[in-house]
Amino acid sequence: MKNKIHIIDVTNRDGVQTSRIGLAKLEKTMVNLYLNDMGVYQSEFGFPVTAHETNYLNANLELAEAGRIKMRLSGWIRAVEADVKEAFRLVPNIKYLNMSISTSKQMLEHKFQGKMDWKKVLESMSGSVNLALEMGASDVGVNAEDASRTEIERLIEFAETAKNAGAARIRYCDTLGYDDPFTIYDRVKALAREVKLPIEMHTHNDLGVAVATSIAGAKAANDGGVDAYINTTINGIGERAGNADLVSTVLAIRKASGLAGKYILTDDIDLKMAWKIARYTSISMRIPIPVNQPAVGDNAFAHESGIHADGALKDHRNYELYDHQEVGRGHIEQIETGRQITTGEYSGIKGFTNMAGKYELKFRDDTHARQILELVRYANVHTQKPVTEDEMKFIAAYPEQAKKIMTVTP
User: What's the first-to-final CA gap in the chain, in angstroms?
Assistant: First the structure.
């Protein structure tokens, strides 16, 4: 059997760490639902040691228990035992964790500033893995922060220590976007062959090559004999210049000349969700999609020059690598220009039932409708945006979880 590639999306962890943006907890939940429906393997859905995340995390795990979310939900913590204990205190049913600790000399000397040497890094990491497994985690990944600036011999020692402690995989973090597709290939292949542990690629886009670097790293892991995992974010959002874009990464594995049919993306990812998930995240984060973004940008399928227009009209494959329908495009979006009844924090029951009727929502009785309306009002206050059709349908289907998600108690 060939080794496989999986997608672990980190929009709800690394993506929301982006300066000057954010997602409300309901919006983070919708992102998880969309990722699940898209067929993504795992969502790194938040920080289990952060108090204001607690209700959201527990409610999303309830959605998983109810079968609404089938993908894995993983939390991010530091590789210290105090974080492990706090994570299980606040989120008792969490099963999947990724724990992170710095590995480069730069970080040890200038971040830890003498508080942790290499021996203590290994001890803290291995002890945290052991404790997490003892407390009920079924899968633990270990993140080597700043792996791309860590000597390969030290990185191998770190990965072997993680493997011996029971870690399921090692995350190779190109924390500063320092690697390129050629260097990461050599380093990851050596790591895979030596340690024989599945490897995650976590790249940043500071040099504009995050997708290419992630793909090269995954290829190296597979070539080295282990499964690969790629960390992505929707629309490539992330700290500084961002992370590897989810849709672009999937397209590259499926369509690139040297990858298509040769490297296997095991997740049954439905690219027809691409437009929907990209647009929802763009609106929620208030970050426009770049006009030239692959698959979902306004110009991704636009042709103006005579030669290109003529060729595309004859056969779209002349100037398009994939069809717009493959990524969920081709529909006409309608905009209401006449009378509109919207639902917000001050809406009444008549306006709400009118809107709910458009969305084909059904209520048991008037009391039930008023209960859902009250939650929809809170959703508008919670997100400070108009409540979307999918948000309203989620609230109506899972009112108890919706209430918990929107509850933040200082």
Answer: 51
Using pLDDT thresholds of 50, 70 and 90, give the confidence band for residue 343. Answer: confident
**CA-wise closest residue to 232 among 6, 10, 3, 1:** 10
Going from N- to C-terminal start, the domains of the chain cover: 4-276, 349-405
Distance of CA 69 to the CA centre of its chain: 14
Angle (deg, nearest 10), helices 81-90 and 118-134 = 30
CA distance 247 to 218: 16
Coil, strand, or helix at residue 73?
Answer: strand
**Rounded Cα–Cα distance for residues 309 and 307 (Å):** 6
Quote the distance between the C-alpha of residue 64 and its chain's center: 16
Of the ranges 87-91, 314-318, 362-366, the best mean pLDDT one: 87-91
Fold for domain 4-276? Answer: TIM Barrel (3.20.20)
Q: In Å, how far are 25, 216, 239 from 244, measured between CA atoms? A: 23, 12, 11
Q: Would you place residue 148 in the very low, low, confident or very high pLDDT band (cuts 50, 70, 90)?
A: very high
Is the Cβ–Cβ distance between 399 and 410 less than 8 Å? no
User: Could you tell me the CA-to-CA distances from 142 to 83, 204, 206, 268, 297 in Å, in that order?
Assistant: 14, 18, 23, 25, 35
Tokens found for residue 228: 């690969």
Assign 352 a pLDDT band (cuts: 50, 70, 90). confident
Alpha carbon distance 49, 85 (integer Å):
9
Q: Could you tell me what percentage of the chain is helix, strand and coil, using 3-state DSSP and rounding each to the nearest 5?
A: 50, 15, 40
A 10 A CB-CB count for 234 gives 29
pTM beyond 0.70: the answer is yes
H or E stretch at 96:
strand 96-102
Give the per-residue pLDDT at 126: 98
Spatial CB neighbours of 39, under 8 Å, sequence gap ≥ 6: 71, 267, 268, 269, 270
SS3 365: coil
Beta-bridge mates of residue 9:
43, 232
Look-up: residue for tokens 């919006």? 27
Q: What is the pLDDT of residues 277-334, one digit of tens each?
A: 999 999 999 999 999 999 999 999 988 888 887 787 788 888 889 999 999 999 888 7
> 3-class DSSP state for residue 31?
helix
- According to DSSP, residue 332 is labeled P
Report whether pLDDT(339) > 70.
no
Q: How far apart are CA 277 and CA 235, in angstroms?
A: 9
